[in-house]
Amino acid sequence: MSPRPADLEELVLAQIHTLAEIAAVAGASIGHCKPHGALYNTSAKDPEQSDAVARACAAFRPGPPVLGLPGSAWPAVAAGHGPVSYTPLTLPTSDGV
Hints:
- The chain is mainly alpha-helical.
- Helix content is 51%, strand content 6%.
- The relative contact order is 0.17.
């Protein structure tokens, strides 16, 4: 079951604010946003979900890039949210490349 985009945006924004508060206590700040777990995978395929996440990131504050799966819906969606940039998340292979 997928949440409605407005509900997802609200939930993600609340999570970002909570994380920002925890980081501030530790003297740190948020440098990027990355959907976690199932949301990472579903938002890569579902433009409505990636749009909701991008809106939440933009509402938090302009600047931090959203990390996303290369070849996903993210590049096009992030381009539509001026202050939100997309950075493809690439992981090293087993040979370290």
